[in-house]
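WARN no homologs supplied; continuing
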Amino acid sequence: MSDLRNYISIIKKNHELKTIKKKVSTKYEIAAITAKVDGSYAVLFENIKESKFRLVSNLVGTINRFAKAVGANESNIHEKVFSAIKHAKKPKIISSAKFMENKSRNLSLLPIVTHFAKESGPFITSSIIFAKNPDTGSQNSSFHRLMPIDKRHFSIRMVEGRHLHRFFVDAKEHGEDLKVAIAVGAHPAISIAGAYQADWGKDEIDIANTLLKGKLHLAKCPYSELMIPASTEIVMEGRILKDKTHKEWMVEMLQTYDHKRYQPVFELEHLYFRNEPIYHDILSGFSEHRLLMGMPIEAKLDGELKTEFPQTKKVSITNGGCNWLHVVIQIKKKTQSEPKKIIKKAFSIHRSLKHVTVVDDDIDPNDPVEVEYAVATRFQANKDLVILENVRGSSLDPSSDQKKLQTAKMGMDATKSFNKNHSGFEIAKIPKFESISLNDYFK
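OK structure emitted
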């Protein structure tokens, strides 16, 4: 099955879901509980003070649960996701949708969570917005956070230059509002695909369908005529108004506050939801948010680097770099010039990268101590450093030029130099170390 409930049942059987029956509030309490369990298990809240809906959080907050969502294991996530991106296939269209079981025009029914002090308000953080590409006629899906203004209106966060913003600008230039449909509570594979920015004219939902082995079904929304996963828990359709904005600000992926922005306004036409609906909340800057955003990019880096540089072994977008800004690339080095070529290629694949480190295949890229060891013993700043100045970077980085979206980037070749005797870099080993168990000696 390709719905959220099936995925929840799978992680529940694997003891990766905790159910909370005690009454909880959407104002800070749900966010605090989610933060407390960050990186351990998903949480299903069944009794919410402000809403009759249930709520689930931290769905893919670990690598293991992320792997389950895409039908992979931890060792082949990259291959699975990259293959789905390259070989995406369209889902089937069906005439009926489970999300049509109930209908309303009142957004206050939703258990929208207030997450952090100093944010401009509560936010829907798991919303996937579907819209039509004006050039190709194909659909596009992407993540955008929504802040309620009243019972029929949200502010909608859009990054300038991204696909949805380009659709909106095109509609505005033609004097039109942009019709959209919004999904909340979809299978995590749909969320993972929605977090990835496919090439112009490509539909991310095709990636989700491939991850779900072709079992995803879409149904048409009556007002927008957009195709939405039929088993989605909650669907909203309406329009992004061409001539209205609203001020908001929020906590971003780096757990820092973004600056205040005037954003376009969404006006609701219809709210649909399943019987006993489950709302999905994502806590900004914590593990689920970072994995949803970072893992598809990590898979893309892994796939494209291995295609051009077969000596690439592993790619790790680091936790310390917020799973977005820093990457460590493990290679089996063949020539002295390879690491710097790989550094430049990585920057071109993911332009938000700020720091790239290349290490040898005896260094674990997921171990920050081993990576720092490689920098300490194999890197010389006057020879092995790559610096790029005044280039496009991440809009999330508070140290960058936020107006021009420019930053400085650094790459480090922390591999063993071919100009040195390799015996000087060999890490000493103790025979029998792996086979010895301390339980045999300390009793």
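The chain has a mean pLDDT of 94.
OK
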